[in-house]
C-alpha cells in the first residue's frame, strides 16, 4: 500500500488584508490544480496567507475563526480538493475570542470537509522568531487518517520536542509526520535536517518538512523511516517554488521496523509491560491518553469510515502515571 505526499514549496504573496488573502489563496489553488498527482498536498506554515511582519501586524483582518465562511482559505482550497480528489494541508492564522491568535494548520479531505485542525503548541522565540509576541500556543495533539495511513501534524518548532513526536508516532500510531514550516535561514536553520533525520529515524516514520520558497527560506525535505546514505537518503529542495511528490509505503515501514527493532526495546514499555501504571519516565512525556478517551472518533465535517482515527487531545503536564497508553500503541 502506498501514499503519495506532495511537498508544496510556495512563494509568499504580499498579504495585508482580506482581498490580498483571497488572491493568495486563489493563487495557491491554481498552483495545486496544475501540480503532479498526489494523495495529499502539504503547504508551509501559515500558507497561503504567509509568514511575515505584514501578516502579523494585520492578524485582526486576516485570522479565521470559522473555517467554512466565504472568503476563507478553505473556501478556495476545498474546490481543488473536490476536483482532484485529494487531501490538502494548509495554514492560516486562527482566532480565538477577541484578541487571541494561533498558528493553525487545517486538513481538508477529498470532499472539501475539514478532518483535522491543529494549533501550534511550541512557539519559536529564537533566531528570527518572535511568535509569542503575536500568538498563543495550542495545547492539543492532532492526527488523522488518509487512505489507510495515519498522519500526525506538527508545525515548525514543534519538532524540537521529542516527546510530542514520540507520542504521535508510538502512542497514536502515526506513520507519517507532517511539519509545515517557515524556516528562515537564521542561526537555527542548519539544525533543521539533523532534527528531521533524528525524529524520523528514532520513531521509524516518514517525515515531510515543508518550507516557503525564496533565498531566505527553501530546503523543504522528505525523510524516509531509515537513512543509510545510499538508496535511502533525505531528499531536499532548493530555494525555488516547486512541488515534489514522494511515496510512503507500508512495505518500507514494516521492513524498517522489522530490521531495526529498537522501538520494541523501549524501557518505558518493556520494563513493566502494556497497561502497567508504573512508568520509567513518569515526568518525561507531557502527553498521555485521556481518561476514558477513545481513539477512532470521526473528525469534524467527517462521516465516512476512512476518516476515523482523527483525534485531538489535550496536552497535560506533568504526565499522569496512572494513565498508560493503550496496548495497541506498542510496536
UniProtKB/TrEMBL annotation:
Family matches, as Gene3D superfamilies: Carbon-nitrogen hydrolase
InterPro entries according to UniProt: C-N_Hydrolase (IPR003010), C-N_Hydrolase_sf (IPR036526)
Pfam family of the protein (one): CN_hydrolase
Residue ranges annotated for the CN hydrolase domain, each copy included: 3-255
Entries under SUPFAM superfamilies matching the protein: Carbon-nitrogen hydrolase (SSF56317)
Source domain of life: Eukaryota
Region of interest (Disordered), ranges: 270-331
Biased composition annotated in UniProt, kind: Basic and acidic residues: 303-320
Ranges of biased composition (kind: Gly residues): 289-299
The protein's name: Nit2 protein
Species the sequence originates in: Symbiodinium necroappetens
Taxonomic lineage of the native organism: Eukaryota, Sar, Alveolata, Dinophyceae, Suessiales
UniProt gene name: Nit2
Amino acid at each position: 500500500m502506498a501514499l503519495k505526499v506532495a511537498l508544496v514549496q510556495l512563494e509568499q504573496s504580499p498579504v495585508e488584508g482580506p482581498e490580498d488573502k483571497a488572491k493568495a489563496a486563489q493563487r495557491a489553488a491554481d498552483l495545486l490544480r496544475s501540480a503532479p498527482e498526489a494523495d495529499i498536498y502539504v503547504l508551509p506554515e501559515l500558507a497561503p496567507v504567509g509568514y511575515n511582519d505584514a501578516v502579523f501586524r494585520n492578524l485582526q483582518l486576516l485570522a479565521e475563526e470559522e473555517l467554512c465562511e466565504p472568503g476563507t482559505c478553505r473556501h478556495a482550497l476545498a474546490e481543488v480538493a473536490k476536483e482532484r480528489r485529494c487531501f490538502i494541508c494548509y495554514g492560516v492564522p486562527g482566532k480565538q475570542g477577541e484578541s487571541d491568535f494561533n498558528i493553525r494548520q487545517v486538513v481538508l479531505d477529498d470532499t472539501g470537509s475539514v478532518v483535522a485542525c491543529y494549533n501550534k503548541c511550541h512557539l519559536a522565540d529564537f533566531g528570527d522568531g518572535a511568535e509569542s509576541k503575536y500568538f498563543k500556543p495550542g495545547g492539543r495533539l492532532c492526527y488523522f487518517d488518509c487512505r489507510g495511513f495515519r498522519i500526525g501534524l506538527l508545525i515548525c518548532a514543534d519538532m524540537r520536542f521529542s516527546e510530542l513526536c514520540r507520542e504521535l508516532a508510538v502512542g497514536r500510531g502515526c506513520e507519517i509526520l507532517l511539519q509545515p514550516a517557515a524556516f528562515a535561514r537564521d542561526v537555527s536553520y542548519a539544525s533543521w535536517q539533523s532534527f528531521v533525520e533524528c525524529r524520523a529515524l528514532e520513531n521509524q516514520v516518514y517525515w515531510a518538512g515543508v518550507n516557503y520558497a525564496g533565498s531566505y527560506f527553501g530546503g523543504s525535505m522528505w525523510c524516509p523511516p531509515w537513512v543509510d546514505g545510499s538508496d535511502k537518503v533525505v531528499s531536499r529542495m532548493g530555494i525555488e517554488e516547486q512541488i515534489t511528490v514522494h511515496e510512503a509505503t507500508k512495505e518500507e515501514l514494516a521492513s524498517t521496523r522489522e530490521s531495526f527493532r529498537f522501538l520494541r526495546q523501549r524501557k518505558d514499555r518493556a520494563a513493566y509491560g502494556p497497561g502497567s501504571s508504573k512508568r520509567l519516565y513518569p515526568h518525561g512525556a507531557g502527553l498521555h491518553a485521556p481518561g476514558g478517551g477513545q481513539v477512532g472518533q470521526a473528525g469534524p465535517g467527517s462521516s465516512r469510515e476512512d476518516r476515523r482515527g482523527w483525534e485531538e487531545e489535550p496536552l497535560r503536564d506533568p504526565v499522569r502515571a496512572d494513565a498508560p497508553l493503550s496496548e495497541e500503541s506498542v510496536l
